[in-house]
Structure formats: structure tokens, C-alpha cells
User: Which sequence fits this backbone?
């Protein structure tokens, strides 16, 4: 499967009477994007703001981060099964607006989401301090259930990102990159001497507010399957996750999955990047056994030499991670796992809930329980009303001087970003 990805670099975002992109500047009509957001009757109001790198701005509680994209050639559209009709994506030509993101925030659920700081020490731990952010704060109608509100905000974010992406349809990209994988037979003939490597991506799928969607299907309803890595670049996998912002992948991370990009960088050089295998993270033991059995079986059937396995979440999913690792290793396939750790604030606790001698090659994202002080910033987009309820915070989080004492897990994208950077450096 071959995908041409056109990058259009956004240098600034400004509000204007008309939405358009000119000379690298994204002009956004507040009236237009508000109308797009309010298409769902469950959303009572939607306000928009802009947050730029280096500004004294804190965004909280964050729900999702999305990169606007548009499908200009080939089958399907962006976010298939969610916004576009169901069709296989990952081929043809897609444009992405680089250097910016759509961020959704607001009173999302009772157990709130994370923080993005655009400056200060917190900015060092989130990739989204480096993007120009169009922030949408949604308020729900009265009496709505938490999971219904989450779904309404999730879809509103996708609609706004799709609207912004469409502005680039007729533009000429600043840069074009080509991503291509072979069929199984073609790959073995073309790269007979290169090790056959795949990426096993574990998707969070533990229930309401802990879900990921594949072509619009809740991942807890799937069994492990094979995908072309280019499919995720067209939004085939999207986030529906709340809680522990550092290790629940926002949609932006799925679209720009660094493991996929790192493996493509080595494809045809040091490895034959065969495919991406997706599997889920289950609650019941029988489901964990089934998914890990199938994942290992697929790796064996593809005659893989090695895999990289990434985990989303912590605690219960640690068991899925280790089951995948030891079963794939038992099939004779070398395995490297990517995970964050929860070793307590002093770093002395067992960092994973499960372990096995087969897990002897690990890329760590660091200890998410590490404490950090976030200074008071001049502006808050969203609200601090729920900051003590964010995973990694406590009743003592908001200090008298307005600063926050929190664990790293409150920062959106924190641990995943660190872990992926370490992978790149291996």
C-alpha cells in the first residue's frame, strides 16, 4: 500500500471573518467552527481560543488532540467510519496541517483529563506545547450522562478538524513524503536479507471512557488483526480515552505514531517493515488469553523475525503486555516492549503490575509518578475547577500561590512522547 503524505506547515493561527489558509497562516472563522461544533444537540455551547508556543497559557482539562488532515486522492476519507464513510484508507494522497492541532477541552467527565502548558517546566513534558493549538471548550446540556458527553465532544473535535483540513484541499504541500509497504510475497522477494519486523500496537479498550476506535468500531469488540501502517495516517484509529493523560494516546499520536514513522525510516535499509498488528487490552482473563494467543499466532504465520510492542495505559494492561511479549517470544520472534512505569513518587515500587523473563528488551517512558511543580500561568483555557480530580493530582494539588503540585501523568502526551523519543534514540 502506498500513501503520499503532503505536509502543509502552519506558521500562525488567527481568527478572521473567513476561514482560509494563506502564506502558511490559518485564518479561522469562529462563527463557522462554532456552527460545526454545535451540530450535536448534546453540546450547549462551544467557545474557541488560540494557544501558541511560549505563551503563559494552561489548557485544562484536555480531552483530545487532533491534527487536521484531508484526503485528496484515493479511497475513503479522513476518520473512516467516524466522519467519512467506511472504506479502506491508507493509499493515494493525504494532506496534513503540520505544526498545529485542534484541542478539545471542557467539563468532560467526573474524573477529569490532563493539562497542556504552553510554557514553563510543564511544557517540556508535552509535545503539544510546541504546536499552535485551536482550542475548543464545549459545555454540555443539563442532565447528560458522562459517556454521552464524552462522545459528543469527541465527534465535535473530529468535525472541526475535518473542516480545518478541508481548507488545504487545493493547496500545494510544502513537503511530500511517500510511505509504502509491500505484500508479503513482494517483501520477501525484494528484501530477502533483511529481518522481517512488525509493530504490535496494543489499544486501550477497557470500557466506557477507556476506549479506542478502529474504523469506528470499539476496539474491545475486535480480535487482533493486520493493518497497513499507512491506514493510521488517514485516521483509521482514533481516541475515546479519559483519565491518566500521559499514557492514553490522543488521536494526534495515532495519526503521527512515532513507532510507525521510525520503522518506515528503516524500511528497506536495515529492516523489512512488514505490517502493523493491532490488538486490544481486555478486562477478563479469557479475553486477554484469546487476544495474546491470536497476536502470537499472527506473528508466527507472518514469519516475523522481530516485533515492537507498545502499551497504552498501565496496571491491568501490564498483564496484556507481558502475555503478548512472552507468547510472541515463545514463537521464536524477538520482542521489544515500550511502556511507561508507575514506580511510586520515590521510584521504589514495582513499576509494572506484571513481569516475565522474556521481557528482556524494554524501552521505558520513565516514571509517571514523578512529582513536578507547575507555576501559575497568566491564562487558563478551560477551567481549574477540576484540577484536583485529574489522575496524578490530589486535594493538595492547587497551592496558595496558584502553582500546581502534580505527578507527570497529568500532562497530556507526556510519557508516550518521552518513550517514543527514547525509541528513536536506540
Assistant:
Amino acid at each position: 500500500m502506498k500513501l503520499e503524505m503532503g505536509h502543509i506547515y502552519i506558521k500562525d493561527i488567527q481568527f478572521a471573518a473567513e476561514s482560509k489558509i494563506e502564506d502558511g497562516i490559518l485564518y479561522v472563522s469562529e462563527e463557522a467552527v462554532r456552527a460545526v461544533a454545535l451540530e450535536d444537540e448534546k453540546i450547549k455551547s462551544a467557545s474557541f481560543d488560540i494557544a501558541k508556543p511560549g505563551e503563559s497559557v494552561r489548557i485544562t482539562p484536555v480531552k483530545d488532540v487532533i491534527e487536521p488532515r484531508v484526503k485528496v486522492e484515493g479511497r475513503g476519507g479522513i476518520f473512516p467510519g467516524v466522519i467519512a464513510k467506511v472504506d479502506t484508507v491508507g493509499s493515494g494522497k493525504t494532506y496534513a496541517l503540520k505544526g498545529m492541532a485542534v484541542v478539545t477541552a471542557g467539563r468532560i467527565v467526573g474524573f477529569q483529563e490532563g493539562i497542556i502548558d504552553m510554557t514553563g517546566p510543564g511544557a517540556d513534558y508535552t509535545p503539544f506545547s510546541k504546536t499552535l493549538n485551536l482550542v475548543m471548550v464545549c459545555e454540555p446540556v443539563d442532565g447528560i450522562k458522562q459517556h454521552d458527553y464524552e462522545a459528543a465532544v469527541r465527534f465535535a473535535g473530529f468535525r472541526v478538524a475535518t473542516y480545518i483540513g478541508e481548507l488545504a484541499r487545493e493547496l500545494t504541500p510544502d513537503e511530500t513524503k511517500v510511505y509504502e509497504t509491500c505484500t508479503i510475497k513482494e517483501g520477501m522477494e525484494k528484501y530477502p536479507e533483511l529481518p522481517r519486523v512488525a509493530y504490535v500496537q496494543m489499544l486501550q479498550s477497557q470500557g466506557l471512557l477507556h476506549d479506542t476506535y478502529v474504523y469506528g468500531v470499539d476496539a474491545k469488540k475486535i480480535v487482533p488483526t493486520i493493518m497497513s501502517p499507512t491506514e493510521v495516517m488517514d485516521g483509521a484509529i482514533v481516541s475515546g480515552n479519559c483519565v491518566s493523560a500521559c499514557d492514553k494516546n490522543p488521536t494526534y499520536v495515532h495519526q503521527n505514531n512515532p513507532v510507525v514513522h521510525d520503522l518506515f525510516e528503516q524500511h528497506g535499509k536495515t529492516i523489512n517493515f512488514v505490517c502493523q498488528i493491532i490488538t486490544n487490552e481486555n478486562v477478563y482473563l479469557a479475553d486477554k488469553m484469546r487476544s495474546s494467543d491470536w497476536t502470537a499466532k499472527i506473528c508466527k504465520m507472518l514469519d516475523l523475525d522481530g516485533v515492537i510492542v507498545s502499551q497504552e495505559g498501565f496496571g491491568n494492561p501490564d498483564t496484556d503486555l507481558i502475555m503478548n511479549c512472552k507468547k510472541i517470544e515463545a514463537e521464536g520472534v524477538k520482542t521489544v516492549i515500550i511502556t511507561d512505569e508507575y514506580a511510586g513518587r520515590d521510584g521504589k515500587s514495582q513499576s509494572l503490575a506484571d513481569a516475565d523473563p522474556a521481557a528482556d528488551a524494554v524501552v521505558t517512558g520513565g516514571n509517571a509518578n514523578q512529582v513536578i511543580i507547575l507555576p501559575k500561568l497568566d491564562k487558563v483555557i478551560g477551567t481549574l475547577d477540576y484540577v484536583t480530580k485529574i489522575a496524578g493530582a490530589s486535594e493538595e494539588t492547587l497551592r496558595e500561590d496558584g502553582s500546581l503540585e502534580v505527578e507527570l501523568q497529568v500532562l497530556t502526551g507526556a510519557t508516550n512522547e518521552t518513550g517514543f523519543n527514547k525509541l528513536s534514540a536506540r
User: Anything to note?
Assistant: Confidence is low (pLDDT under 50) at residues 416-426. The helical segments are 30-37, 146-166, 184-190, 251-255, 258-266, 285-301, 316-330, 414-425. The chain is about 20% helix and 35% strand. The longest helix spans residues 146-166.
